[in-house]
Amino acid sequence: MKKSASEPDALPCAPEVAATLREEVLASHAYAVPPSTGLIKLDAMENPFALPAVLQDALGQRLARLALNRYPEPGHQQRLREALLKHEGSAAGLDVMLGNGSDELIALLSQAVRGPEGSPGTVIAPEPGFVMYGVSARLNRQNYVGVPLRADDFDLDAQAMVAAIRQHKPALVYLAYPNNPTANLYSEEAVAAVVDAVLANGHGFVVFDEAYQPFASRSQRARLGTSPQILVMRTLSKFGLAGVRLGYLLGQTEVIAQIDKVRPPYNISVLNLECALFALEHSAEFARQAQIIRDQRQQLVGLLGALPRVRCWPSQANMILLRVGETAEAAAAVHASLREQGVLVKNISGAHPLLQGCLRLTVGSPKENLTLVRCLHQALDATRQ
Ligand SMILES: *Cc1c(COP(=O)(O)O)cnc(C)c1O
């Protein structure tokens, strides 16, 4: 489990180096990715399906023909931007900015904005939520404010969000829609209250992070036309290309043109660009995979919810949040037992008080999901106090 940012890091460091690095860097911890070789990997919301062999061959030939000796030419990015806009339904007045994953877009957004008085500004996000919003804010010396979600149903606490927005006049408000790790969509009234509060400030962007959009029943995309202060961020990671690193930010054309100035000119390699173009040409295959995952999710929620002492929340994403015990120790024991049986999920019990005793798992292939249920049954038996 990650330690809090305020604890000193144990990494050794020469005094000259320590005197040179920023406090935020010295105090932070590298993002830990656990080893997964030989395990059924259900910890990072990856798509379990590979490309069909014919498509693999076709993609290989496309990639082999790229000019790897050249910097990416602007027309290549332009082609992908147009393909993404088409994929998104091509509404007039909108444009898209490309990031090396959404993670890069989150970092670039922090660099692009400021507070009302010219300070680096405040970033607000509900919690528990995606860690990168806070990481990026802190590294950019922004004030990060996490507002707790409502206990039990994990909806936005609209009153608390609106109060924080009035008080801090944030430069960025992130709403992951669906949220990670709680996998839910916020209620429409609460979202509207948050948007109205930001617009009333006359300052700041509301960023809807729709990374899990392929699995969700609703989107906030239609809000893009209503205000230049609305942005929607999406990614090909959960869609099925986590290894490719391609995120994109949708907004009104003039807004995107401004924020795009912060982007390093060659941030997307020709390999990423071509893979993404290829995937969009074959989006029917990815849509087919997403449908299987949504069907599997419903089955899995039913099976997991029927296990003794397990609470399983409904999901609008390709992940499921479940409580396997009352304490962090109980969650750690079940997590360890699953790992011993060859199944890797994420123990998020320590990430936030509302997640006490909780694990988060990815919806895998039908076979992986059956193994997961069997192993979880075994883990619950073995760790029963
Ligand atoms: C997985 C995830 C992302 C994706 O980040 P990439 O850098 O595009 O892989 C973004 N936001 C949330 C909430 C996520 O869970």
Walk me through the structure.
Strand 9 and strand 10 form a beta hairpin. The two termini are 23 Å apart. The relative contact order is 0.15. Helix 7 runs parallel beside helix 8. The strands form three sheets. A seven-stranded mixed β-sheet has the order 2-8-7-6-5-3-4. The chain has a four-stranded antiparallel β-sheet with strand order 9-10-13-12. The N terminus is likely disordered. With 385 residues, it is α/β, with parallel strands linked by helices. It has 14 helices and 13 strands. It is globular and about 60 Å long. 41% of the residues lie in helices and 15% in strands. The structure holds pyridoxal-5'-phosphate (PLP).
Q: Strand order across the biggest sheet?
A: 2-8-7-6-5-3-4
Number of helices: 14
- Which percent range describes the beta-strand content? 15-25%
| Helix-strand topology string | HHEHHEHEHEHEHEEHEHHHEEHEEEH
Contiguous low-pLDDT stretches (5 residues minimum) are 1-8
Structural class of the helix and strand makeup? alpha/beta
Computed CA radius of gyration, to the nearest angstrom: 21 Å
Main β-sheet description: 7 strands, mixed
Number of strands: 13
Percentage of helical residues? 40-55%
- Distinct compounds present: pyridoxal-5'-phosphate
Mean pLDDT: 94
Cα distance, first to last residue? 23 Å
Overall shape: globular
Write the layout of secondary structure elements.
Elements: H1 15-20, H2 23-27, E1 40-41, H3 53-64, H4 74-87, E2 94-99, H5 102-112, E3 122-127, H6 132-139, E4 143-148, H7 158-168, E5 172-176, H8 188-201, E6 205-209, E7 230-235, H9 237-241, E8 247-252, H10 253-259, H11 270-281, H12 283-305, E9 311-312, E10 319-323, H13 328-340, E11 343-344, E12 346-347, E13 358-362, H14 366-382
Parallel strand pairs: 1-11, 3-4, 3-5, 5-6, 6-7
Antiparallel strand pairs: 2-8, 7-8, 9-10, 10-13, 12-13
The structure holds pyridoxal-5'-phosphate.
Pyridoxal-5'-phosphate binds next to helix 5 and helix 9.
